[in-house]
């Protein structure tokens, strides 16, 4: 009985963790200044605008060894 409950609890925690990650990513995308650019294909006119558009935290990607071991990207 306990292994079944442990497995169920583990799966529920995985779903909650995935939902948390998705919610955090959605909040990052909605707060991104790049989303409000009128002409996204055009280069910024000033260097300060470029710095503003690229000022967000870069997503860390795991190494190839970590990805092959099953690490989640993003």
Account of the protein in words:
It is a single chain. This protein is mainly alpha-helical and 74 residues long. It has one domain (2-68). It is built from three helices and no strands. The chain is elongated and about 65 Å long. The model has no long low-confidence stretch (mean pLDDT 83).
List key phrases describing it.
mainly alpha; 3 helices; 57% helix
What topology emerges from the helices and strands here?
Layout: H1 2-31, H2 47-53, H3 64-68
Major sheet characteristics: none
Treating each run of at least 4 consecutive H or I residues as one helix, how many helices? 3
β-strand amount: under 5%
Task: Compute the separation of the termini in Å.
Answer: 35 Å
Globally, the shape reads elongated
Overall structural domain count:
1
Gyration radius, rounded: 19 Å
Mean pLDDT: 83
> Structural class, from helix and strand content?
mainly alpha
Instruction: Give the helix level as a range of percent.
Output: 55-70%
Give the SSE string.
Answer: HHH
Strand tally is 0
Low-confidence parts: none
Tell me briefly what this model is.
With 74 residues, the protein is mainly alpha-helical.
């Amino acid at each position: 009985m306990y292994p079944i409950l442990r497995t169920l609890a583990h799966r529920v925690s995985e779903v909650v963790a995935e939902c948390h990650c998705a919610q955090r990513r959605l909040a990052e995308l909605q707060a991104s200044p790049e989303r409000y650019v009128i002409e996204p294909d055009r280069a910024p006119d000033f260097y300060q605008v470029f710095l503003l558009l690229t000022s967000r935290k870069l997503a860390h990607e795991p190494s190839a060894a970590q990805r092959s071991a099953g690490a989640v990207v993003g």
